[in-house]
Automatic annotation (TrEMBL):
GO terms for molecular function: ATP binding; ATP hydrolysis activity. This is ATPase associated with various cellular activities AAA_3. It holds the Pfam family AAA_lid_2. PANTHER family: METHANOL DEHYDROGENASE REGULATOR, MOXR FAMILY PROTEIN. Keywords: ATP-binding, Nucleotide-binding. The keyword ATP-binding applies. It comes from the Bacteria. Residues 34-175 form the AAA+ ATPase domain. InterPro entries: AAA+_ATPase (IPR003593), ATPase_AAA-3 (IPR011703), CbbQ/NirQ/NorQ/GpvN (IPR050764), ChlI/MoxR_AAA_lid (IPR041628), P-loop_NTPase (IPR027417). Belongs to the MoxR family. The keyword Nucleotide-binding applies. The lineage of its organism: Bacteria, Bacillati, Chloroflexota, Chloroflexia, Candidatus Thermobaculales.
Amino acid sequence: MSARELAEVIKQNVRRVLVGADKPTEMLLVALVAQGHVLIQDVPGVGKTTLARALAKSIDTSFSRIQFTPDLLPSDITGAYYYNQRESQWLLREGPIFAGIVLADEINRAAPRTQSALLEAMQEGQVTIEGETRDLPSPFLVIATQNPIELEGTFPLPEAQLDRFLLRISMGYPSREDEKRVLLTHSPQSIRHIEPVTSTRQILDATEEATAVTVEESIAEYIVDLIRATREHPAVQLGGSPRAGTALLRASRALAALRGRDYVLPDDVKELAVPVLAHRLVLTQESMLRGRSAEEILQEIIEQIQVPVEAEA
């Protein structure tokens, strides 16, 4: 099964329980194929948990949900050793991080020490417990959520942790027609009837396919121009790092593969620039007081940077 076929069967399967979510589903697949992670920043009730569960069921991989709260401890995520009196030895009780797809719900409600328990897992695909390092499943995807409106009792994610997320996306509200279909067809039990349509092996094959996607030199220069422009923009205090450019390239390769191409187009880069870069920018105090957003500034930059038309041709 090609990466494009994989994307189509998964999106079709997710449609059985979630209406109008093709775009968020595709973005999760981009992160999964590019071996990254996703931060969904949106209001409650738009289907974030349903999407994560439907994706896990579609791929036939393990799924766990961690409800982040102020009293959550790092060991509640990674697990801990306990003494088994019957066997007279210390055994590891694995935490919910040991799953193929992990939903970190309301991640900004946990204290920074607990948030940082995810850093090693997201960056290295492993966790260290009591000095012992254990590998996590492959593929491994963290889907974190946070409410952009409710700020009381929350701990904003530091820049170092935000940088671990390949994409930051929003589910958005459905169209009027889709919302009517939700009212007429939605059932809380429908998620239980989702069956796997692919395997983790096919996801890993899609990852290999994405790494083979061709990137012309003009596309690489276009990405560099975008990243450097974020550092030079007067409204930005801290622009994109070289790692941000690498992330944009990885995501663009994955998107091209999922759409059935073996080459990256400038349109792939333009489409992913905001979800890949917006959460990595730190705006100046003056621009924030004026109500400007990183998304708005990135759109300005995209319009200003010359697109390599010859590469698209």
